[in-house]
Write a structure and sequence with these properties.
Elements (H helix, E strand, L loop, with lengths): L9 E7 L2 E4 L13 E6 L2 E13 L3 E4 L9 E5 L6 E4 L6 E6 L4 E6 L5 E5 L5 E4 L7 E7 L2 E6 L4 E6 L5 E5 L8 E6 L4 E5 L4 E5 L6 E5 L8 E6 L3 E6 L4 E6 L5 E5 L7 E6 L4 E5 L4 E5 L5 E6 L6 E6 L3 E6 L4 E6 L5 E5 L7 E6 L3 E6 L4 E6 L23 E3 L11 E4 L14 E4 L10 E4 L6 E4 L4 E5 L4 E4 L2 H48 L4 H149 L1
Parallel strand pairs: 35-36
Antiparallel strand pairs: 1-2, 1-6, 2-5, 3-4, 3-6, 4-5, 7-34, 8-9, 9-10, 10-11, 12-13, 13-14, 14-15, 16-17, 17-18, 18-19, 20-21, 21-22, 22-23, 24-25, 25-26, 26-27, 28-29, 29-30, 30-31, 32-33, 33-34, 36-37, 37-38, 39-40, 40-41
Helix pairs in contact: 1-2
């Protein structure tokens, strides 16, 4: 058995909650440990569960978990096709979904009342309630907006992925189950007609709509579709024709498929061909841009597939009425099957996030995530995107171009267009060949300080928190300095050698002079001294030979020095350029110092003003002090006056009392006399 295929079914019995026994044939002892087993009842192959195998002998398997009570059949696989589940949703909760390029899966609500966003890395779910109730089927990402195709309401709806703000566009003709699918072509959103006569093109800027009559009256018409970079392809449901729309003009072309009603539900582009998911048809179908149809694989029964996606190597089909998930290699046409166990009418869409395929539930009660890396090679991508030095990018661009290599990386430049609109300064990594939709890309947000090499420019850029800034190659300056050091060393060595040679020459000249003096002195006695002269001449010749050798050495040293001079000159130029930059910075510093000097002068003037104010305040305080002294003197005078007055009052009191007594006595006498 291949390490990526599930095995053929094996009949047996459930001996206990964790032990299964096969009826015929054998396994190799311990060969299945750490693999997975899918248990189900042969009469109901769509219901079952994958469990990890902890032990096996020739006829039994032991697992962790509980084997389905009715299980009488098992399949094994080297890996678990169902990596993770997200439960809690009822029947027909969603009508397909899409990725937003930021690692989030968005689900279009069909029977569920809310739009659901799932962070594919953490599994965190966030829900949003649309302004108007009603169902949707299909969605697509345009920059930071997610557009939802109305299926059971009259509102084309979008939500801003960053803010959660909704915008709606009403059309009274959107009655019944109008659309099944939304497609973005890099410029416009296209709504796939289901019970509607028109394919609708929407301007994302203002929601304005243009309608094109498809010319087909077989309802329901189409289910889902895709964009191949030039054409919109509509997957035929009741339509006898595959419908192709030229995105730039709206021209419609029909291609008869001859596979009956309810034939296909979903389409995906692999960079070369469009693949259609077989629903009522037993054929997995593909078509090229010219309309040449090829039935790639014939299934034993109608496919029962609703929705499909492409991971860069394989096309994955979402099982609606099929017991298995099906994948097909686009190049070899090899078919892979994996049981899902989630019941009949399980799923109605498949979305690829770059590492996993997510299956969108119809009657299944959970969303499932499947790791598909076993069936494809890895894609190079930033491993953590949280370190300063990042892996290199291939280029900087405002929009993607046609590419042939998965893993091509871009820094998205300002004024981005097409599917990169609104994603300036982010880093995009292609998930597949010729990626035409935003969900075909990883979109990573850089952090301040991130730095990476741009390969086609052969330079570095660093993110400063708002934009990518060109970084001069510091290694050039270092190389220049190193070159200067090397050349200086070479020149110094050459000069030392020249000095040594000159010393030798000086010594030789002295020797020659001595020899010539001896020859002159003995000139009168040539015959007697001939042998001495000959010896002196021999010595001179030897010295001349030495000089020749030394001269050759000097020439070589001078050549070495000359060879080093251009490099030294270039290095000095590099250093001069660096000094020019320093001079510019010094000029800036001088200007700043001038500003500081002016500020100091202003502060000095302010201090002088403050000092004058303090002098005035001191004078005022002196005046107030003098006034207080006057007040004190007045108080002293008043105190003396009060004392004098008090004495007078005391005197007056005594004399007053005496006068009053006299007065009273006189009154009594008068009153007495009257009586």
């Amino acid at each position: 058995m291949s390490l990526v295929h599930q095995s053929d079914p094996i009949s047996g019995s459930r001996d206990s909650a964790s032990l299964f026994r096969r009826y015929a044939g054998t396994w190799t002892v311990d060969a299945l440990i750490d693999q997975y087993a899918f248990f189900y009842a042969a009469a109901a192959p769509t219901v079952g569960n994958w469990l990890p195998i902890t032990d096996n002998d020739t006829t039994t398997i032991t697992v962790t978990g509980t084997i389905l009570a009715a299980a009488n059949t098992v399949k094994t696989c080297a890996w678990n096709p169902i990596e993770e589940e997200f439960s809690g949703y009822g029947s027909y909760a969603f009508g397909n979904g899409c990725m937003d390029g930021m690692g989030n899966l968005w689900l279009a609500p069909f029977g569920y009342s809310k739009i659901v966003k799932i962070n594919t890395a953490t599994g965190t779910k966030t829900e949003f309630t649309p302004p108007h109730s009603g169902s949707f089927w299909g969605c697509c990402c345009v920059g930071t907006d997610i557009w939802f195709a109305p299926h059971g309401n009259m509102y084309l709806t979008k939500i801003n992925a960053d803010t959660g703000v909704f915008t709606e566009y009403y059309d009274a003709s959107f009655t019944g189950t109008t659309f099944v699918g939304a497609i973005y072509d890099g410029t416009s959103v296209w709504l796939v007609p289901h019970n509607y006569r028109y394919v609708v093109k929407v301007n994302p800027a203002d929601g304005s709509m243009t309608k094109y009559d498809v010319g087909v009256n077989n309802w329901p018409l189409c289910c889902e579709g895709c964009f191949d970079g030039e054409y919109i392809w509509l997957s035929p449901w009741q339509s006898p024709n595959i419908i192709r729309v030229t995105a730039s003009t709206g021209v419609i072309t029909l291609f008869a498929h001859n596979y009956g009603p309810y034939a296909f539900h979903g389409a995906v582009f692999d960079g070369y061909h469009v693949w259609f998911a077989p629903a009522g048809s037993d054929k997995i179908l593909r078509i090229d841009k010219a309309g040449s149809i090829v039935p790639v694989v014939t299934l034993s029964t109608p496919g029962g597939m609703w929705g499909c996606c492409y991971d860069g190597q394989n096309v994955w089909f979402s099982p609606h009425d099929n017991q298995d998930i099906i994948a097909i290699n686009r190049a070899s046409w090899e078919v892979f099957r994996f049981a899902h166990g989630k019941g009949a009418e399980a799923f109605d869409g498949a979305v690829y996030d770059g590492n996993h395929v997510w299956y969108i539930p119809a009657y299944a009660t959970s969303i499932i995530k499947s790791d598909v890396s076993r069936l494809r090679g890895p894609i190079f991508r930033t491993p953590a995107f949280d370190i300063a030095w990042q892996p290199p990018v291939d280029t900087r661009a405002t929009a993607p171009t046609e590419i042939e290599v998965r893993g091509t990386r871009y820094i998205i430049k300002a004024t981005a267009t097409g599917i990169f609109t609104g994603l300036e300064n982010k880093v995009a990594t292609a998930k597949q060949l010729n990626p035409t939709l935003i969900e075909h890309w990883y979109i990573d947000t850089p952090k301040e300080g991130h730095r990476c090499r741009v390969l086609d420019e052969n330079v570095d850029y660093q993110y400063d928190g708002s934009s990518w800034v060109f970084q001069p190659d510091a290694s050039g300056f270092s190389t220049a300095i190193s070159s200067v050091a090397v050349n200086v060393s070479t020149v110094s060595a050459g000069l030392s050698a020249a000095v040594a040679v000159n010393s030798t020459q000086t010594a030789n000249i002295s020797t020659n002079t001595a020899g010539i003096s001896t020859a002159t002195a003995n000139n009168s006695t040539h015959s007697a001294k001939l042998s001495i002269i000959s010896t002196g001449i021999s010595t001179a010749n030897a010295n001349i030979s030495t000089n020749v050798v030394n001269n050759s050495t000097n020439v070589a040293n001078i050549s070495t020095v000359s060879a080093g001079l251009p490099a030294l000159t270039a290095s000095i130029s590099t250093v001069s350029a660096g000094l020019s930059t320093v001079n510019v910075n010094n000029s800036t510093n001088v200007a700043n110092n001038s500003t500081n000097t002016a500020n100091i002068s202003t502060n000095t003037a302010n201090i002088s003003t403050l000092s004058a104010s303090c002098s005035t305040a001191t004078a005022n305080i002196s005046t107030i002090s003098a006034g207080l002294s006057s007040v004190v003197a007045i108080n002293v005078t008043q105190t003396a006056n009060i004392s004098t007055l008090s004495a007078e009052l005391d005197a007056f009191d005594l004399s007053g009392k005496q006068d009053l007594g006299t007065y009273i006595d006189e009154e009594e006498e008068i009153e007495f006399s009257i009586e």
